[in-house]
Write a structure and sequence with these properties.
By secondary structure, the protein is of the alpha+beta class. 35% of the residues lie in helices and 21% in strands. It starts with a helix and ends with a helix.
């Protein structure tokens, strides 16, 4: 099947004299996850991960992806003509280097200009110039051969009331316009679906488990124009938009609006998000201020209402997850369980919680060796039977009106080896060290990441991903500009200063291919501590409430301070959750949150 699709794509390339064609993992908005309509890279390669780029020539087909997906990609590409290129591994060419090498002199480089951001598109243009080559960017070649391609999603919209958002749209627009004035920008083009949803206090469902609306926004001092599929705008939504002076135009009309912006206009946009076709549609004499969208930092710094609500969301989510953990630990070996049936049981517990809307991403429920794949997804073919032995890793979360959650627990289903216990204890120590950090304001995640990696680096092991990411408020579960990472990775854009109100995950892990995976993940709210002659000190508040499995802990490998941190955390978990549990569940919970 993949061979046939590659053949059909190459036929279209030959017809247009395109030598090399790039298919990224992206929609028109540089979203992290994309709807089925946009999964052209999956269609052409068979790789289902959320990150990766396919590059096709007449004789070669390559798939570039990062360390989270090495194991998965190797399995899914086996038996196909697609070669896996492991990003960041020594000796593996970067995508741009591969393109530079393979693009012939006076050749043609092709990509759909709507799914490549302007910054990357400009790099491709410069490579083409170096080879005296041309660009072909006005067609989606994958779409020409994808006969049963899903339609664009059109999910209903809903308003997020101020009791949840904490700020109304008028206030947000006013703050945005103040930032535009600082840049002397007459127009701000906003294409990030997360930023638009936050700014308008409107949510949708156009990406699975990400409550956003396919749309673009143009903001001037006097206007706010929302480009979306107009049939989605109900009378209630239209009345709301009229209240805040927001006009509606068709989704595709953005490509007519942008060229109409006067030549002397200063336009604020983020080239790493706005697509290449939009950026190239501006009049050449427009002045472009290429900066991060002001809304990115605004929405990352949660206001007091959002923080209070998110704590409540985590209580509800913690109740659901702990009921699941109780069921798992008491029923394993007694009743049949598989990865999928366990995942379904957890989702049912979340659905019982007040104001639950959806899971926040596809649950990763991975048993044994499957957990070594960081973003494993069980299928009917891979659905492993759970046995009373080894580890089960469950990474999951929920969307509530009160916020978005993301939690990972690795649980012992039965006997473990000494190695497994040592690795689990090291991951627990890593998680606790970061959660209990105290630091001066101005630190970034790259300043603190060593706290989490230290116990693992001491053992000569590492994990091929960041230690944590920002979390949106009833939005995308991965949000910038905050994150934890041991080195700056520019394309991740998660190295921002840690501000009070930011919510960031803390999720170190160990992944041994063919053996097991371990991850422990909590969410942390950044808060101010004391201020003195040394500056403003900052701390984290842990807002995830669920036991860390003491069956896998080796207390003797923890310092006294580390044991106290774990005991304090477990006391908080018990005090928070016990009012919501049954008597039997509380008896179990007391044991699994006992002091060690």
């Amino acid at each position: 099947m993949i061979q046939e699709r590659l053949g059909a794509l190459r036929s279209e390339m030959r017809e247009r004299k395109i030598d090399l064609y790039v298919i990224p993992t992206s929609d028109f908005h540089e979203s992290e996850y994309v709807g089925d309509h946009f999964k052209a890279r999956k269609f052409i390669t068979g790789f289902t991960g959320s990150a990766g780029t396919a590059i096709i020539t007449q004789t070669e087909a390559g798939l570039w992806t990062d360390g989270r997906y090495f194991v998965q990609a190797e399995q899914q590409l086996a038996g196909t003509p697609v070669t896996l290129y492991r990003m960041g591994v020594e000796g593996v060419p970067a995508e741009e280097d591969f393109i530079r090498e393979k693009l012939p002199e006076h050749g043609c480089l092709g990509f759909d200009g709507r799914v490549v951001n302007a910054k990357l598109g400009e790099k491709f243009r410069r490579i083409a110039e170096q080879k005296s080559a041309t660009l072909h960017v006005d067609e989606d070649l994958a779409g020409l051969i994808w006969e049963d391609r899903p339609a664009l999603p059109k999910e209903p919209l809903f308003l997020l009331e101020e009791c949840y958002s904490g700020r109304n749209t008028a206030d947000k627009l006013s703050c945005l316009r103040e930032e535009m004035k600082k840049e002397e920008a007459g127009v701000h083009i906003l294409t990030s679906l997360y930023d638009i949803a936050w700014l308008l206090n409107i949510r949708g469902g156009d990406i699975d488990h990400v409550p956003v609306v396919l749309s673009y926004l143009a903001v001037t001092d006097a206007e706010c124009i929302w480009f979306l599929q107009e049939e989605l705008v109900t009378e209630q939504i239209r009345s709301y938009l009229d209240k805040y002076g927001i006009t509606v135009r068709p989704y595709e009309a953005i490509y007519g609006y942008v060229p109409s912006i006067p030549a002397d206009t200063c336009v604020l946009l983020d080239r790493s998000v706005v697509n290449y076709r939009i950026a190239c549609s501006l009049h050449p004499d427009c002045k472009i201020v290429d900066k991060k969208n002001p809304t990115e930092l605004m929405k990352a710094v949660k206001n007091p209402v959002e923080v209070d609500n998110t704590r409540l969301a985590h209580v509800r989510d913690g109740v659901a997850f702990t009921k699941f953990m109780y069921w798992l630990k008491t029923q394993i070996g007694r009743i049949p369980m598989t990865e999928i049936s366990a995942s379904d049981y957890l989702r049912e517990r979340r659905q019982e919680q007040e104001h639950f809307l959806d899971i926040s991403f596809d649950t990763i429920c991975a048993y044994g060796p499957n957990a070594a794949m960081m973003h494993y997804a069980a299928t009917p073919e891979s659905d492993a039977e759970l046995k009373p032995e080894g580890f089960l890793l469950v990474d999951s979360g929920g969307h509530y009106y009160e916020g978005t959650t993301d939690i990972t627990r690795t649980m012992a289903l039965g006997p473990l080896t000494d190695e497994m216990r040592r690795h689990f204890t090291a991951v627990c120590r890593s998680n606790l060290a970061l959660a209990n950090a105290k630091f001066l304001y101005g630190c970034r995640g790259v300043s603190l990441d060593i706290l989490a990696r230290g116990p693992l680096w001491d053992m000569g092991i590492d994990y091929r991903c960041g230690t944590g990411h920002g979390v949106g408020y009833l939005l995308n579960v991965h949000e910038g500009p905050n994150g934890f990472r041991w080195k700056i990775v520019p394309e991740r854009q998660d190295s921002g200063v840690l501000e009070e109100g930011m919510i960031t995950t803390d999720e170190p892990g160990v992944y041994l291919e063919g053996k097991y995976g371990i991850r422990l993940e909590n969410e942390l709210v950044c808060r101010k501590a004391e201020k003195n002659e040394y500056g403003q000190f900052m701390v984290f508040e842990n807002i995830t409430y669920a036991p860390i499995d003491l069956d896998a802990i080796l207390p003797e490998e923890m310092t006294g301070r580390e044991r106290k941190m774990l005991n304090d955390y477990h006391k908080m978990v018990y005090d928070t959750l016990s009012p919501h549990m049954t008597e039997e569940e509380n008896e179990w919970l007391r044991h699994y949150t006992r002091a060690i």
